[in-house]
Amino acid sequence: MISLPYTGESAMSVMNEMHSIMEPHLKCLNLWQLDGRPMSGDIGRGATRESIAFAVRLAVAKDRPLGFLQLAGGTNAHTADGLRKEGLFQTTLENSNDVRSVLASPSSAFIGGVAYGGYARKIVGRVLSSMPSQQGPSSIEDHPELLVEALGLALGLVGTVKCYHPVHHSSFR
Fold it and tell me: Where does the Iron-sulphur binding protein LdpA C-terminal domain start and stop, copy by copy (predicted)?
Protein backbone atom coordinates (compact mmCIF):
# COMPACT_ATOMS: atom_id res chain seq x y z
CA MET A 1 0.00 0.00 0.00
CA ILE A 2 1.25 3.44 -0.92
CA SER A 3 -0.17 6.56 0.64
CA LEU A 4 -0.36 9.24 -2.02
CA PRO A 5 -1.17 12.82 -1.03
CA TYR A 6 -2.75 15.08 -3.59
CA THR A 7 0.10 17.21 -4.93
CA GLY A 8 -1.74 18.93 -7.75
CA GLU A 9 -0.62 18.37 -11.30
CA SER A 10 2.46 16.43 -10.16
CA ALA A 11 0.41 13.66 -8.47
CA MET A 12 0.35 11.43 -11.56
CA SER A 13 4.08 11.74 -12.21
CA VAL A 14 4.84 11.02 -8.54
CA MET A 15 2.57 7.97 -8.67
CA ASN A 16 4.22 6.68 -11.84
CA GLU A 17 7.71 7.26 -10.45
CA MET A 18 6.86 5.31 -7.28
CA HIS A 19 5.38 2.51 -9.36
CA SER A 20 8.43 2.27 -11.61
CA ILE A 21 10.64 1.78 -8.54
CA MET A 22 8.34 -0.88 -7.04
CA GLU A 23 7.30 -2.66 -10.24
CA PRO A 24 10.21 -5.13 -10.45
CA HIS A 25 9.37 -6.36 -6.95
CA LEU A 26 5.55 -6.37 -7.09
CA LYS A 27 3.91 -9.77 -6.87
CA CYS A 28 0.34 -8.44 -6.79
CA LEU A 29 -1.64 -5.30 -7.51
CA ASN A 30 -0.83 -2.30 -5.38
CA LEU A 31 -3.25 -0.36 -3.20
CA TRP A 32 -2.97 3.38 -3.74
CA GLN A 33 -4.33 5.27 -0.74
CA LEU A 34 -5.45 8.67 -1.98
CA ASP A 35 -5.12 11.28 0.74
CA GLY A 36 -7.41 14.14 -0.20
CA ARG A 37 -7.14 15.81 3.22
CA PRO A 38 -4.64 13.79 5.26
CA MET A 39 -5.55 13.16 8.89
CA SER A 40 -8.51 15.55 8.82
CA GLY A 41 -11.34 13.71 10.59
CA ASP A 42 -13.67 16.32 9.05
CA ILE A 43 -17.37 15.53 9.12
CA GLY A 44 -18.98 17.85 6.56
CA ARG A 45 -19.89 17.07 2.95
CA GLY A 46 -17.24 19.50 1.71
CA ALA A 47 -14.43 17.64 3.43
CA THR A 48 -14.83 14.56 1.27
CA ARG A 49 -14.98 16.51 -2.00
CA GLU A 50 -11.18 16.81 -2.23
CA SER A 51 -10.71 13.10 -1.75
CA ILE A 52 -13.37 12.26 -4.35
CA ALA A 53 -12.01 14.85 -6.79
CA PHE A 54 -8.56 13.26 -6.47
CA ALA A 55 -10.06 9.84 -7.23
CA VAL A 56 -11.91 11.26 -10.25
CA ARG A 57 -8.67 12.70 -11.64
CA LEU A 58 -6.85 9.40 -11.27
CA ALA A 59 -9.74 7.29 -12.50
CA VAL A 60 -9.79 8.99 -15.90
CA ALA A 61 -6.00 9.15 -16.27
CA LYS A 62 -4.87 6.87 -19.07
CA ASP A 63 -1.31 6.63 -17.79
CA ARG A 64 -1.93 5.69 -14.16
CA PRO A 65 -0.30 2.49 -12.93
CA LEU A 66 -2.42 -0.57 -12.22
CA GLY A 67 -3.75 -1.01 -8.73
CA PHE A 68 -6.71 -0.45 -6.48
CA LEU A 69 -7.63 3.04 -5.32
CA GLN A 70 -8.62 3.62 -1.69
CA LEU A 71 -9.83 6.98 -0.50
CA ALA A 72 -8.46 8.42 2.73
CA GLY A 73 -8.04 11.86 4.24
CA GLY A 74 -11.28 13.81 4.26
CA THR A 75 -13.40 10.67 4.16
CA ASN A 76 -16.56 10.64 6.23
CA ALA A 77 -20.19 9.51 6.19
CA HIS A 78 -20.75 11.31 2.85
CA THR A 79 -17.88 9.63 0.94
CA ALA A 80 -19.59 6.47 -0.34
CA ASP A 81 -22.57 8.46 -1.65
CA GLY A 82 -20.23 10.94 -3.34
CA LEU A 83 -18.35 8.10 -5.04
CA ARG A 84 -21.60 6.59 -6.28
CA LYS A 85 -22.69 9.96 -7.71
CA GLU A 86 -19.41 10.14 -9.66
CA GLY A 87 -19.87 6.56 -10.91
CA LEU A 88 -16.64 5.45 -9.23
CA PHE A 89 -17.91 3.19 -6.52
CA GLN A 90 -18.12 -0.48 -7.39
CA THR A 91 -18.50 -3.24 -4.88
CA THR A 92 -18.01 -6.11 -7.32
CA LEU A 93 -16.07 -6.75 -10.48
CA GLU A 94 -19.04 -7.20 -12.77
CA ASN A 95 -18.66 -8.91 -16.16
CA SER A 96 -15.04 -9.83 -15.63
CA ASN A 97 -13.14 -12.63 -14.00
CA ASP A 98 -9.85 -10.82 -14.56
CA VAL A 99 -9.10 -8.04 -12.07
CA ARG A 100 -6.21 -6.74 -14.20
CA SER A 101 -8.45 -6.19 -17.24
CA VAL A 102 -10.89 -4.17 -15.14
CA LEU A 103 -8.13 -2.07 -13.62
CA ALA A 104 -6.40 -1.51 -16.95
CA SER A 105 -9.37 0.46 -18.24
CA PRO A 106 -9.66 3.98 -16.81
CA SER A 107 -13.37 3.96 -17.66
CA SER A 108 -13.93 1.15 -15.17
CA ALA A 109 -12.10 2.64 -12.22
CA PHE A 110 -12.29 0.42 -9.20
CA ILE A 111 -12.35 2.00 -5.76
CA GLY A 112 -10.93 -0.69 -3.52
CA GLY A 113 -12.10 0.87 -0.29
CA VAL A 114 -12.46 3.85 1.98
CA ALA A 115 -10.19 4.47 4.96
CA TYR A 116 -12.18 6.32 7.60
CA GLY A 117 -9.36 6.76 10.16
CA GLY A 118 -9.79 10.11 11.88
CA TYR A 119 -13.50 10.34 11.20
CA ALA A 120 -14.16 6.88 12.66
CA ARG A 121 -12.05 7.70 15.71
CA LYS A 122 -14.01 10.92 16.15
CA ILE A 123 -17.48 9.32 16.10
CA VAL A 124 -16.53 6.33 18.25
CA GLY A 125 -14.47 8.62 20.51
CA ARG A 126 -17.65 10.47 21.48
CA VAL A 127 -18.98 7.24 22.96
CA LEU A 128 -15.68 6.45 24.67
CA SER A 129 -15.55 9.92 26.23
CA SER A 130 -18.98 9.34 27.75
CA MET A 131 -17.73 6.32 29.72
CA PRO A 132 -18.08 6.88 33.46
CA SER A 133 -14.85 7.72 35.25
CA GLN A 134 -13.59 5.03 37.57
CA GLN A 135 -10.49 4.58 39.60
CA GLY A 136 -8.14 2.46 37.54
CA PRO A 137 -8.43 1.30 33.95
CA SER A 138 -11.83 0.64 32.42
CA SER A 139 -12.73 -0.83 29.06
CA ILE A 140 -15.79 -0.36 26.91
CA GLU A 141 -16.66 -4.04 27.41
CA ASP A 142 -17.44 -3.13 31.02
CA HIS A 143 -20.26 -0.90 29.71
CA PRO A 144 -22.43 -3.01 27.35
CA GLU A 145 -24.79 -0.16 26.48
CA LEU A 146 -21.87 2.00 25.31
CA LEU A 147 -20.30 -0.92 23.44
CA VAL A 148 -23.56 -1.46 21.54
CA GLU A 149 -23.76 2.27 20.75
CA ALA A 150 -20.14 2.32 19.46
CA LEU A 151 -20.75 -0.80 17.35
CA GLY A 152 -23.89 0.76 15.87
CA LEU A 153 -21.96 3.88 14.87
CA ALA A 154 -19.12 1.84 13.36
CA LEU A 155 -21.49 -0.45 11.46
CA GLY A 156 -23.43 2.55 10.17
CA LEU A 157 -20.23 3.96 8.70
CA VAL A 158 -18.82 0.72 7.28
CA GLY A 159 -22.23 -0.31 5.98
CA THR A 160 -22.16 2.56 3.46
CA VAL A 161 -19.14 0.92 1.82
CA LYS A 162 -20.12 -2.72 2.30
CA CYS A 163 -23.61 -2.05 0.86
CA TYR A 164 -25.62 -3.26 3.77
CA HIS A 165 -27.91 -1.44 6.05
CA PRO A 166 -26.93 -2.08 9.63
CA VAL A 167 -29.54 -3.26 12.08
CA HIS A 168 -30.60 -0.52 14.43
CA HIS A 169 -28.41 -0.88 17.52
CA SER A 170 -31.39 -1.51 19.79
CA SER A 171 -31.74 -4.86 17.99
CA PHE A 172 -28.41 -6.01 19.45
CA ARG A 173 -29.80 -6.17 22.98
Answer: 2-159
